[in-house]
Amino acid sequence: MMGAVHLLPGTTFSDIDERGGYDSDANAAMTLDELERWMALEITRYHADRHGTLGIPPLAAWHEAAARRVRPVRHPYDLAGFMVDFLPSVERLVRRDGIHLFGLRYWDDVLSIWAGRLDRPLRVSYDPRDLSKVFVRAPDGMRWPVRFADLRRPPITLGEHRRARTALRERGLALVDEQLIFETIEAQRVLVDEATLRTKAARQLAEKRERALGSAASNKSPAPNEPKQAEDDRPIDWSKVPVYAVEEWS
């Protein structure tokens, strides 16, 4: 599996020595979403291919082993909770105004029974790809989705949040300000969108120019009946150029 990963463009290889002079940043070509889809396809291919030790595809070995089981294979009781268990998590106290995470405030009415009353923190799980919602594990083990306290806030990623905080610190704004964070993220999104449009437009213009110039160069040939200059650059004998009678119309 890792061998296949190291064949992708932009791989960092196993160590610096193996990477050598390979420029990983310059050769990287896939987004994180594309890499996730590639990994899913690679896992599917792995399970369908013949395994060197098993002698058969892993998927076939799984079906054979499952058929020999006396009891059916167990599945997660709560698929959503199963997913949440794999998310990163932190411990947070439920304040009177909700839960604070990454300088952002989250609130739901379910928190009101613990707000300012619970003397121990609760486990809060979050998805780095979408910080608009976190998952709070209640004292009884139940998981509750809790959204931004201000529901007008757009979904943001943890990467966007970190870049915004870095930009604010560079401007000397060390204090956490939720409004500034979202304003900075919005401004950065606009810059990225405009740069993307400019880049696409530049590529399209360059392509049109190259195609136009290429077509012009390939079509550049003497017009019909246009005399060609001799290869040795001798003057053309115009007396030998054929002439055609022109009929005069009244």
What do these coordinates show?
The chain is of the alpha+beta class and 250 residues long. 40% of the residues lie in helices and 12% in strands. It contains eight helices and six strands, in the order H-H-H-H-H-H-E-E-E-E-E-E-H-H. The chain has helices at residues 2-5, 16-19, 24-27, 32-48, 58-68, 79-84, 158-170, 178-218; strands at residues 89-92, 99-101, 104-107, 122-127, 130-137, 143-148. Strands 1-4-5-6-3-2 form a six-stranded antiparallel sheet, with no helix packed on it. Helix 7 (158-170) packs across helix 8 (178-218). The chain starts with a helix and ends in a 32-residue tail after the last helix. Mean pLDDT is 78; it is low at 220-224 and 226-232.
Keywords, separated by commas or semicolons:
single chain; 250 residues; alpha+beta; six-stranded antiparallel β-sheet; 8 helices; 40% helix; 12% strand; flat
